[in-house]
UniProtKB/TrEMBL annotation:
Organism placement in taxonomy: Bacteria, Pseudomonadati, Bacteroidota, Chitinophagia, Chitinophagales
Identification of the protein by name: Uncharacterized protein
Sequence segments annotated as region (Disordered): 20-42
Protein species of origin: Chitinophaga silvatica
Biased composition range(s): Polar residues: 32-42
Taxonomy, superkingdom: Bacteria
Length: 63
């Protein structure tokens, strides 16, 4: 009997302060260079989030 887990945990931390580069988790690609355009930064953040969600869904489908 297959076990189905219906749980997705997404955590996002946005820090607007000037800090050093964030630590990178294993398997992550390096982030794109920072832009000064807030709209572009928001679009980049959304793109990264969508990519991660799609990756989780793909991994879940493979099981």
């Amino acid at each position: 009997m297959p076990v189905e887990i219906r749980e997705l945990y997404i955590k996002a931390v946005i820090d607007t302060g000037k800090a050093s580069a964030p630590a990178q988790l294993p398997g992550e690609t390096s982030p794109a260079p920072a832009t000064t355009d807030p709209n572009q930064q928001q679009d980049d953040l959304i793109a990264v989030c969508v990519e991660k969600v799609l990756e989780v869904l793909k991994n879940r489908q493979e099981r």
